[in-house]
TrEMBL record:
It comes from the Bacteria. Signal peptide: none annotated. It holds the Pfam family Biotin_lipoyl. Residues 3-448 form the Biotin carboxylation domain. This protein is a component of the acetyl coenzyme A carboxylase complex; first, biotin carboxylase catalyzes the carboxylation of the carrier protein and then the transcarboxylase transfers the carboxyl group to form malonyl-CoA. This is Biotin carboxylase. Pathway: Lipid metabolism; malonyl-CoA biosynthesis; malonyl-CoA from acetyl-CoA: step 1/1. Residues 584-660 form the Lipoyl-binding domain. It comes from Oceanicoccus sagamiensis. Residues 122-319 form the ATP-grasp domain. It catalyses: N(6)-biotinyl-L-lysyl-[protein] + hydrogencarbonate + ATP = N(6)-carboxybiotinyl-L-lysyl-[protein] + ADP + phosphate + H(+).
Length: 662
C-alpha cells in the first residue's frame, strides 16, 4: 500500500457523488469519469477534474477497464474508488489497478475472486466453520447431478448462479419437474450477465429475514464489525428497504453473527469494507448467504447509527493505516431506515422508466438524509440501473425513524418520470412493517396487483387540482395584463366567473366547475356535489389548502398550459384539462407489431419467421436497466418478420417482431 493524494471515482450517479463528497472533505483531489449520457451529470460537475470514457452503454464506458485506467493516467490520479456495481467486484479490475501502480480502494483481487463465486465462497465458509445453508456447490454441473443433489437436499430449493448478484440468475423451485427449466433459465441469465453459467443449489429457507453484517478490516490484521442491517423487504431478490438495527436482533445474536462475519473476513485475509450476508430464520438460526466485497448501497443506515463515515474509513485503510477503532469503540445510537427511489412503474411490473426530470427537490428535516445524483432537467438514461436516490431517516427509536422517513418521501418532489415513491410509503405504512415483522416474503404477501396499481383519484384531489390550476392560470393572466387592479380579478359584470376542468384518470372522469366565492375561496361543483376550498397559500411548487374545513399541503408543477403535475401524500398525479387539448387518436392494440418497451439489448429470440404463435406466447427477451422484459405475442398468427438480431441494441418503440394475424 502507498499514500495518495488524488482519487478517481470509477462510477456514476449518487454513489459517485457520495464518494467525491467525502474525498473532497478530506482534502483529496477528485476525478470523475463519464459516458456520453452523463456529460452534464452532477458527479462530473462536483469533481476537480472529469474525463470522458466512451459511449453511453456501460459495456462501452463504465465497464471498460482500459478506458478507466487511461482516464486515471490522463488525470494523474493515484487511487481508484469503484463505488458499487460496475467494476467494483471485478477481480481483473482490481488486479489491473495494481499492475498500473494505482491504489484500488477495496479488497485484494484474490478476495474479490474468491467471494465473487458463490460456490467457491461457500466451500471456503464451510471450511472456516461459518454456518451455511445446506446445499450443493460442487463443480459437476450436469443436470443429472444437480437433480440428484436437489432430491438429497429436499424441496423447495433455490437454484442460484454461482457468479451472480442482484437477484439475477436465481430461481425458487418447489418440485423436481420444474428444476430443469429453472436451471435453463437461470443459466441463460447468468451467462449473459456474468459470463458463467455455473450453478449452486441451496435449501430454501422459507420466509427468512435477510440480515447482513458490516465488517471492516485493515492491513494490520484488525477486523471489526459495525453491527447489522435488516434488508428483508425485497422484490425479485433486490432490496427495497433497509434498516439498522434489525428489529428482532438481540445482543447475543448480534455477537454471534458479528463473530461469524469477522471470522469470514479473517478466513480470506480481507481488507477494507465488506458485508457478510445471512439468512435468519424464525428460530434465530442464521446461515451464510454471500459476501459483498465492496461498499453497499445501504451503508448510510450504518453510518447514521454509528456516527462513522465508511468512505473515509475505506480511504484510511487503502492508505495502509490501521483502523482507528476497536470493536469496543463501536456504539449504536438510535435507529435508521433507508429506501431506494427508483424510476420505475410498480403498476406495470416495476418496469423501469426513462424521461426527463421536470423537477427534483429533496426533502429536508430532522434526521433526514438524501443521497442522490440527479437534478431538475436531467434525462434519465436507459443504459443504467434505474435507482435515482436513497431517502434515509434517523430517529432515537424505530417508530420515529419510520415516521420521519414517510414524511421525507411525501415531501420529496420528483416530477417528470414515474417512480416507486408512493409504493415505498405504502410499505412503511403497512402494519406488518410497522411492527417489525417483515420477512423476504413481505411484498409478495402484502401487495396484490390491485394494490400496486392503486390508480384511483379522489374527488377531493381532483378538486384541489382544479383550484390550483385555476389560480395559476389567473396569475399568468394578471402577469400578461397591464394595470389591472387585484380586486377586479375574477370579477365579471354577470357575476362570479366559473371555469370548467375535465380530467380523465384511467377509468375515472371528473367534470368540475370552479367558481371563486371570496378572496382565495372557491366552490367546486361536480354533478350534485359542491366542495368548498380555501387556498391558504400558493408558493412556487407548494400549495396549502383547506377543503371542507380540513387543511392539506400538496406539491405541484405546471409544465405546460392545461397540465398540472400534482403530488398528494407522495402520490404523483398528472391532471390534464381535456378541454385544453384536442382528442388524440387511441393507440391501436393487438395489431401484431411488437415494440421494444424501452432502450435495451435483445437478449434472446425465441421465434423465427414462419413460426405459428398464440396470443400471450413469450417470443423474445429484452434486457434493460439490469432487468429482463418478456416480449409476448399480442395476437394469434404467424411470425412475418424479425427486425432485430440477438445481442443488438434496441430503442424504445422500435419494431422487434411483426406477426401476421390468422
Amino acid at each position: 500500500m502507498r499514500r495518495f493524494n488524488s482519487i478517481l471515482v470509477a462510477n456514476r450517479g449518487e454513489i459517485a457523488v457520495r464518494v467525491i463528497s467525502t474525498a473532497k472533505q478530506l482534502g483529496y483531489r477528485t476525478v470523475a469519469v463519464y459516458s456520453e449520457a452523463d456529460a452534464d451529470a452532477i458527479h462530473v460537475k462536483m469533481a476537480d477534474d472529469a474525463i470522458a470514457i466512451g459511449p453511453s452503454p456501460a459495456n462501452e464506458s463504465y465497464l471498460v477497464i482500459d478506458n478507466i485506467l487511461a482516464a486515471a493516467k490522463a488525470a494523474g490520479a493515484e487511487a481508484i474508488h469503484p463505488g458499487y456495481g460496475f467494476l467494483s467486484e471485478n477481480a481483473e479490475f482490481a488486479k489491473a489497478c495494481e499492475q498500473a501502480d494505482l491504489v484500488f480502494i477495496g479488497p485484494s483481487a484474490e478476495s474479490i475472486a474468491l467471494m465473487g463465486n458463490k460456490a467457491e465462497a461457500k466451500r471456503h465458509m464451510i471450511k472456516a466453520q461459518v454456518p451455511c445453508v445446506p446445499g450443493y456447490e460442487e463443480k459437476d454441473q450436469t443436470d443429472e447431478v444437480l437433480m440428484a443433489a436437489a432430491e438429497n437436499i429436499g424441496y423447495p430449493i433455490m437454484a442460484k448462479a454461482a457468479a451472480g448478484g442482484g437477484g439475477r440468475g436465481m430461481s425458487l423451485v418447489h418440485k423436481a419437474e420444474d428444476l430443469v427449466e429453472a436451471l435453463r433459465s437461470a443459466r441463460s441469465v447468468a451467462l449473459n450477465s456474468f459470463g458463467s453459467d455455473e450453478m449452486i443449489l441451496e435449501k430454501a429457507i422459507i420466509n427468512p429475514r435477510h440480515v447482513e453484517i458490516q465488517i471492516f478490516a485493515d492491513t494490520q490484521g484488525n477486523v471489526i464489525h459495525l453491527g447489522e442491517r435488516d434488508c428483508s423487504v425485497q422484490r425479485r431478490h433486490q432490496k427495497v428497504v433497509e434498516e439498522a438495527p434489525c428489529p428482532v436482533m438481540s445482543d447475543k445474536l448480534r455477537e454471534s453473527m458479528g463473530a461469524a462475519a469477522v471470522e469470514a473476513a479473517r478466513a480470506i485475509n480481507y481488507r477494507g469494507a465488506g458485508t457478510v450476508e445471512f439468512l435468519l430464520d424464525d428460530q434465530g438460526h442464521f446461515y451464510f448467504l454471500e459476501m459483498n466485497t465492496r461498499l453497499q448501497v445501504e451503508h448510510p443506515v450504518t453510518e447514521l447509527i454509528t456516527g462513522q463515515d465508511l468512505v473515509a474509513m475505506q480511504i484510511q485503510v487503502a492508505q495502509g493505516q490501521a483502523l482507528s477503532l476497536s470493536q469496543q469503540d463501536i456504539q449504536f445510537n438510535g435507529h435508521a431506515m433507508e429506501v431506494r427511489l427508483y424510476a420505475e412503474d410498480p403498476a406495470k411490473g416495476f418496469l423501469p422508466r426513462t424521461g426527463q426530470i421536470a423537477l427534483w427537490q429533496a426533502a429536508v428535516g430532522e434526521g433526514v438524509r438524501i443521497d442522490s445524483g440527479i437534478d431538475s432537467g436531467q434525462a434519465i438514461s436507459p443504459y443504467y440501473d434505474p435507482m435515482l436516490a436513497k431517502v434515509i431517516a434517523w430517529g432515537p427509536d424505530r417508530e420515529t425513524a419510520r415516521h420521519r422517513l414517510m414524511a421525507a418521501l411525501k415531501n420529496t418532489l420528483l416530477f417528470g418520470t414515474t417512480s416507486n415513491k408512493r409504493f415505498l410509503i405504502d410499505i412503511l405504512e403497512r402494519e406488518t412493517f410497522a411492527k417489525g415483522l417483515a420477512t423476504t416474503a413481505f411484498i409478495d404477501q402484502e401487495f396484490s396487483k390491485a394494490d400496486l396499481k392503486n390508480s384511483s383519484v379522489s374527488t377531493n384531489t381532483a378538486a384541489i387540482a382544479a383550484v390550483i390550476q385555476y389560480a395559476l392560470e389567473q396569475q399568468q393572466a394578471m402577469q400578461a395584463s397591464l394595470n389591472v387592479a387585484d380586486d377586479l380579478l375574477n370579477w365579471s359584470s354577470t357575476g362570479h366567473m366559473a371555469s370548467r376542468y375535465v380530467y380523465q384518470f384511467a377509468k375515472q372522469s371528473f367534470d368540475l366547475l370552479v367558481s371563486p366565492t371570496a378572496t382565495n375561496c372557491y366552490q367546486v361543483a361536480l354533478n350534485d356535489q359542491a366542495l368548498v376550498l380555501e387556498l391558504l397559500n400558493l408558493g412556487e411548487n407548494t400549495a396549502r389548502l383547506r377543503i371542507n374545513g380540513v387543511g392539506q399541503t400538496v406539491y405541484f408543477l405546471m409544465p405546460e398550459p392545461g397540465v398540472l403535475l400534482l403530488s398528494v401524500e407522495g402520490a404523483n398525479i398528472e391532471c390534464r384539462n381535456e378541454l385544453a387539448f384536442s382528442a388524440s387518436a387511441e393507440a391501436v392494440a393487438g395489431d401484431g407489431q411488437l415494440l421494444a418497451p424501452m432502450h435495451g439489448v435483445m437478449q434472446e429470440l425465441l421465434v423465427s419467421v414462419g413460426d405459428a404463435v398464440k396470443q400471450g406466447q413469450r417470443v423474445a427477451v429484452v434486457e434493460a436497466m439490469k432487468m429482463q422484459h418478456d416480449i409476448v405475442a399480442d395476437i394469434d398468427g404467424t411470425i412475418e418478420a424479425v427486425a432485430v438480431a440477438e445481442g443488438s441494441q434496441v430503442a424504445a418503440n422500435d419494431i422487434l417482431i411483426a406477426i401476421a394475424g390468422c
